[in-house]
Amino acid sequence: MSGGAAESRPAGPVAAFAHRAEHFRPSPVRAVFEHAMRPGIVSLAGGNPDTGVLPHEVLAGMTARILSERGPEVLQYGSGAGIARLTGLVCELMALGGAVATPDRIQVTAGSQAGLDLVTKLFCDPGDVVVAEGPTYVGALGVFGSYEVEVQHVDVDEDGVDPEAVAARIDALRTVGRTVKLVYTVPTFHNPTGVTLTEPRRRRLVEVCAQRGVPVLEDDAYGLLGFDRAHRLPSLYSLDPGAVIHLGSFSKIFSPALRLGWIAAEPSVRARLQIAAEAVTIHPSVLSQELAVEYVGSEHWRPALDRAAARYRARCAAMMEALETYMPAGVRWTRPCGGFFTWLDLDPDADHGDLMHRGLEHGVALVPGGACYADGRPSTSLRLAFSAASEAEIAEGVRRVGEMLRDGVRRRAGD
Amino acid sequence: MSGGAAESRPAGPVAAFAHRAEHFRPSPVRAVFEHAMRPGIVSLAGGNPDTGVLPHEVLAGMTARILSERGPEVLQYGSGAGIARLTGLVCELMALGGAVATPDRIQVTAGSQAGLDLVTKLFCDPGDVVVAEGPTYVGALGVFGSYEVEVQHVDVDEDGVDPEAVAARIDALRTVGRTVKLVYTVPTFHNPTGVTLTEPRRRRLVEVCAQRGVPVLEDDAYGLLGFDRAHRLPSLYSLDPGAVIHLGSFSKIFSPALRLGWIAAEPSVRARLQIAAEAVTIHPSVLSQELAVEYVGSEHWRPALDRAAARYRARCAAMMEALETYMPAGVRWTRPCGGFFTWLDLDPDADHGDLMHRGLEHGVALVPGGACYADGRPSTSLRLAFSAASEAEIAEGVRRVGEMLRDGVRRRAGD
């Protein structure tokens, strides 16, 4: 692997990986999702939606009807852009975030992650820079790494990312000759922190990026999962569709198993994304698309989504209460208004060690904060998910986190 | 787009595409699949399986049962390698081609095309070379182009590709300092020519590539679609699992709509492919996987596959008969023993013009041969698919191809 002469190269495929394969390493949090399944572990790690709220019998009936009435068609190759009724439905979903989208701007993808991959593939050469929140979605780091893109983080506070700091970072990077290709953001119920970008900051962020000709890549997986439906902020895309590329997902508002999401972009960009998408997946699963059209277009969808949001709200409240009860002094956490996550800031000057393994030793699975940064910094923070655990599990899991943090302090004090 | 100074760069995303995006152009055959749907056009273009043979009511019942009995589980995130029962089933399918595979070597993918993308992503840097048959699968050219890989073609004859010619090409490329990363081949019922690599050539191809440390990438979408079940050749993978990466597909033996395929590779390679796959699609659709396990593992699958193969055999016979009847002198074609396609060689010294549009003018959709080469050469050949048209349509379509070819000759003679 160290590039020796041809005759010393080992036979077989391993010697011949591409340069980018250096980045195809297990993420530091990959193991936690396996450990999280172990008996006795309370998992506050994974951002899983609660699929228990879905009307399974209704979905069974819909799927059976689709296959029985239109089998030869829905089992055949489909359109590369996505089936027409689904792109229409996506426009309706985007209207809930205030956006006026038309089907010629919608590219259906095999999940929002695939959308993120395609946009990165279309825009980014090795060595290019993406500016992203710090911390950011761990799965986005995997994508950017696979294209040898450098991620530059801009800190988030309770109001999201500071647009002036983003602008200053872009300008500073350009001054030293770097090429900034995208500003990647999860503006609503941010993964991993749970914070939401305020409306003034939304307007300003889109503005400073448009001025600099850097597209904003808005990842909006959680936008419809606010605890208070009345209080919904405009999507970045709705503020300037020419300056923003929008990633949508059916994973959190319906089911992640179907692998279905979308990209909204300028028609000329969408057309290129379709060509890139066809080279990877040809098209997303037609059965998934047909089921999404039937279900999300039916009267069953909204009540189930509201049931889910009510559960997430109650679980978030339970987590906030448990944090008040069990956290040692000096720990701070975010207070989300939606989504799946809260974020804990620990003492930034202390050595917290390997939080993932320390958590597992105490019987709780969590995502260590360092995993959400591209620069491999040590963890002085952690992410807790409240979406997929019961209120009792949350209380117990947070108690264990508190125990772990106190134990860490004691152990260090005793060193 | 021509790389002017920063101040002259147009605002917005278009200016900032990656270098590879130059290759995200519509393929020359993309339009034909749209035109093929026009009234009055006989389509011999697309390699669609006949989904009319599938037992739709059975599939409807299976899907309903899966959702109704295990809804919360099958609608949740799944395993990145694929669900365990499916990797087991894949090993059984591979055994039909003589291969002994184990689940730790199987990576389930969101279609075989996604497998091709992942292998290319893992192995190929820009400027690397892939040696492939000439002509080759048009969708593979899209993948290789998207990674800025150069394709070097080695001609096929009625027995497939000549292993000695492949070896000589690799050696010649190395002599001039090029890096050959993969030998890509569709050895069985080749797309687009329909020919099958003979058993001696299979053994020798694997041998010469292993000697040179170049992995063979075997694309085996059609291996189970032979007209004569008794006459089955060993897969390349079965001959040397350490030297071959195998791509399998459920698209032709079940349904392309589900987007489900697999890669078989050394465990260490498979593990890297899983990480790369998770960054793109997280996992393939769980519903697709569950349905494939139920259906392909049931007593319904093999009879439907046999019904399909019988239809393809009859349609191929109809095409051979029509070719005998309608082709002008000097046209030669392959005589497939399975798969979906035959390949016509026209007069190599004549200018055949734009065969796609000439075909459409005569009311027949076909794939011009030039589209199946990476070098943009003019078409002196064409691909006809017999998989998705009735015998009457095939006769009429081939008659129109003959008319087109005679018309071309007449027009040139009259110029």
Approximately how much helix is present in the residues of chain A? 40-55%
Describe the global form of chain A.
globular
**What oligomeric state do these chains adopt?**
homodimer
CATH superfamily of the largest domain in chain A: Type I PLP-dependent aspartate aminotransferase-like (Major domain)
Largest interface: A-B, 94 and 94 residues
Largest sheet of chain A: 8 strands, mixed
Contiguous low-pLDDT stretches of chain A (5 residues minimum) are 1-14
Question: Can you tell me about this structure?
Answer:
Two copies of one chain form a homodimer. The first copy, chain A, is α/β, with parallel strands linked by helices. Chain A has two domains: 18-53 and 303-414, Aspartate Aminotransferase, domain 1; 76-296, Type I PLP-dependent aspartate aminotransferase-like (Major domain) (Aspartate Aminotransferase, domain 2). Helix content of chain A is 41%, strand content 14%. Chain A has 13 helices and 14 strands. Chain A has helices spanning 30-35, 56-74, 84-95, 112-123, 138-146, 163-175, 199-211, 236-239, 267-281, 286-296, 301-326, 355-361, 391-414, and strands at 42-43, 106-109, 129-134, 150-157, 160-161, 180-185, 216-219, 244-249, 261-264, 332-333, 341-345, 364-365, 367-368, 381-385. An eight-stranded mixed β-sheet of chain A has the order 2-9-8-7-6-3-4-5, with helices on both faces. Chain A has a four-stranded antiparallel β-sheet with strand order 10-11-14-13, with no helix packed on it. A two-stranded parallel ribbon of chain A has the order 1-12. In chain A, strand 3 (129-134), helix 5 (138-146) and strand 4 form a beta-alpha-beta unit. In chain A, helix 2 (56-74) crosses helix 10 and helix 4 (112-123) packs parallel to helix 5 (138-146). The relative contact order of chain A is 0.16. The model of chain A is unreliable at 1-14 (pLDDT under 50).
